[in-house]
Amino acid sequence: MALNIVRLMPPLWFACALLLCGGAALAQAEPQAIGTVPPATAERLFASGFECNEAGYRDGEIPNDELVDAPNRIPNGWEVTYNGETPIVDSARIHYAKSCEGSAHVERIAGIDSVVIKARDLEWSSAPGKPFDVALYQQVNVVSGTAYSLSGWMLTLCGGSNTKPRNDCPDGYYMAKMLGVDPTGGVDMNAESVQWVENRRNFVEPDGVTRVGWQNLRLGVTAQAPTITVFARIHSPFQWHGNHGFIDALSLVQAPTATLTATTPVTGSVAVTLSWGGDLGPDIPLIPNSAHRLLFDIQYWHDANGRWRDVVGDVEAGETVFHAACPGSLYRFRVLPRAEQPVGSSGAWPNQRYPGVWSEPIDVFVPAPEVEAVAPAEPVDAQSFLPFVAAQRTC
After folding, report:
1. With the C-alpha atoms ordered 377, 382, 385, 391, is the resulting torsion angle positive or negative?
2. Which residue of 27, 122, 356, 393 is 20 to 30 Å from 156, comparing CA positions?
3. What's the pTM value of the predicted model, to 2 decimals?
4. What is the CA 286 to chain-centroid distance, rounded?
5. How many CB atoms lie within 10 A of CB 261?
């Protein structure tokens, strides 16, 4: 019985060997940039909460809006990039409460502040709510070849919040909330190397009453360089009054990892035993009040289907038996780890979800059953004919 194994483990063993074993050797060699290997931490982003009373904001450019004569405020530690003209970018606390110490209703998911992005000519002109496409970005030192997980929160209001019905976004209109990572460390949000996740849900349901509110976006990416770039982007492609959005509580950690094994069936069997497990990684356990636990999704591929299909999902470490519907052919299996807090738990807030990355597929050939001897056919006048019923099974 053959055993196929694929592992997604962070490439930290080399760094550990240097730190634990190489004192004399390092003294004789050229200085090594050991300090560039980031240590475990509960958060790898600077100013991930966009708080005006912590890292603060700096002046940016003045938006092209006749009623705006003050510069944008850009969160320290972050840069701004955009397609077209820049909209209004500001500290939500300062924008609505007039100062960081001011009191007013401010949309945020944590702390006292968030970043607000508003369309130009928002409500005063005859053509309000100019389209915009803007992103905050930050470059982060990482270990190339290691998987990282980005989680964050956004809120978009297509049509504003003071209309009746609220958020009267026309059919087909939307504002896109987007999180992205360039694993090569580039700063062009339009580059093909950037991996994105997108959410287009509005602040409320189409009834204008049922609140949707803040949405969590997350993705896992494997670093391809010593630096990766994190993007938090809001794309409002349609001109419509009231369009604005908020970004808050971004989090970047080393991603959870997974191990998957699959046993090749013996001749005459179509049963593939799949076993999986994993690890939260070094960062997630350091998050204050974390109640994260590991969950896994397992999928399979067969060429006859042309897509990945679920075996099991949202499960803890364990094993299952997969029965191949099409013996005599090749199957592939993969696993995705996820770190999530149970619903209703009193864990870390906000409730970030941290996905890993899909494993490299395991190839398993399921042998065809042995051909049995065929009995001689009966005489035609002794045969009984039954209607043929086609039973098409998916592979």
Report:
1. negative
2. 356
3. 0.85
4. 20
5. 18
